[in-house]
Amino acid sequence: MLKPEKKIFSLEEYFEIENRAEFKSEYYHGEIFAMTGASIAHNLIVSNIITVLNNSLSDSRCFVFPGDIKVQADFGLHYTYPDVSVVCNDIEFFENRNDTIVNPVVIFEVLSQSTKDYDRGSKFKAYRKIKSLKDYVLVDQYSIFIEHFYKNDSGFWILNEFEKVSDSLNIRSLNIDICLSKIYHRIDSRYI
């Protein structure tokens, strides 16, 4: 049986489709992938992260964005909707689009069964091409587990893992600590 031929879209076609769409889609090397809805646990975790970041950064020049802002992960090839992104100082936009940023300092992704391999693999590979990116945080929604990748002073990515609700995550690029109890606040087994 023949496989259906993949439809490849230009970047211009993708942005045109996104401008008219009722739902979000990510762009990956010419392919467009619709974003699906998220669980209650996923949404609570994202809300908790945004709350903690906004409270911690309220007097800074950093801006916290929810998953409705696109990030240029790899110029012309990969555009994503991270669950949470942070830009410090001036916000730089892709080709004067006010919905696509190119200079995040921190990105958070909440893992689901369907996205965890993508978030750890090709998406993170593309994110590492973002010169401004210093911290990449993967948050498990099914158990207390966080993978924090940060770029050290030599430009190498280092992994720290956290598994206790009493652990504290240090986001060096933002000069803040976030206790896992804040990220997993009000998450219980009913929402997983």
From TrEMBL:
Residues 11-173 form the Putative restriction endonuclease domain. One of its GO terms (molecular function) is endonuclease activity. InterPro entries: Nuclease_put_TT1808 (IPR012296), Restrct_endonuc-II-like (IPR011335), Uma2 (IPR008538). It comes from the Bacteria. Keywords: Endonuclease, Hydrolase, Nuclease. SUPFAM superfamilies: Restriction endonuclease-like (SSF52980). The keyword Kinase does not apply. This is Restriction endonuclease, DUF820.
